[in-house]
Amino acid sequence: MEISTAFREILFTEDKGIAILTLNRPEIRNVITSAEMIAELEMVCNRINQDSHIKVLIITGKDPAFSAGGNIKDMAAKGSMFQGSPVKIMENYRKNVQRIPLAVHAVEVPTIAAVNGAAIGAGCDLALMCDMRVASEKALFGETFLNLGLIPGDGGAYFLPRAVGMAKACEMTFTGELIKGRDALDLGLVNYCVRHELLMETAMELAQKIASKPPEALRMAKRLLYMGQYLTLPHLLEQSASFQALCHHTKDHMEAVNAMLQKRNPAFTGE
Fold first, then answer.
1. b/e burial code for range 225-239 (CB count within 10 A of at least 16 → b)
2. Edge-to-edge strands of the sheet including 179-180?
3. Which architecture does CATH list for 2-211?
């Protein structure tokens, strides 16, 4: 297992193609609006895109919270990114917290949020930026911006309707109510909800299933799924044909075919 010591606000490990990013400010419930936290999140996302050995990213938080979102004390003091004129604050959002959705959404490998506790405001949206979510029974989700007289400033209005549909996204946003892990499962907000002590085990099991697939085809499959959200069917089919042609010329494709015919497990190399 590779453990990176280059970070202060997060923990980062990588083992057998599975990377884990842990928000590591439990004393302030892993708020994600500090410049340092944002820079380290962005750095990890960029690093993963440059590392062909990484196949899956898990994002979680150090107990007791996944992330409480923005720092309310900074808001009250008009400090940090919440200071200045309206124009200045707009620029602060663009140059700070909005870097997170752009970075996480651009991660080329599948991403899993392992939600261990409260995921509130921007913390909820961070979980939504991931492709999949596994929740502890202690998890709480809240699109709570309106409770503070604010709106989702970090892309929640983009990610939430895609996760639960427009009607439920409106209800969550307009009421600001908290949703427990089991209820989040019923809404389709999360893929699994498990006992707290089984959270990382379950997330790792899902990650291992994904990591067992051919890495280049895996990245192309993710890109194709997201292209399908905005391309027309003819354009998506054209892109699918292009990606498929590339896949047919990989060694991993032939390895998969031969392994199936020979009734053995494939050994993928990313070639």
1. eeeeeeeeeeeeeeb
2. 65-67, 118-120, 140-142, 179-180
3. Alpha-Beta Complex (3.90)
pTM of the model: 0.95
- CB within 8 Å of 95: residues ≥ 6 apart: none
2.60.300, 1.10.1660, 1.20.120, 1.10.12: CATH of 215-261:
1.10.12
Length of the chain: 271
pLDDT digits (tens, 9 = 90+) for 84-127: 999 999 999 999 999 999 999 999 999 999 999 999 999 999 99
- Domain locations in the chain? 2-211, 215-261
pLDDT digits (tens, 9 = 90+) for 174-190: 999 999 999 999 999 99
> Do 29 and 118 touch, CB atoms closer than 8 A?
yes
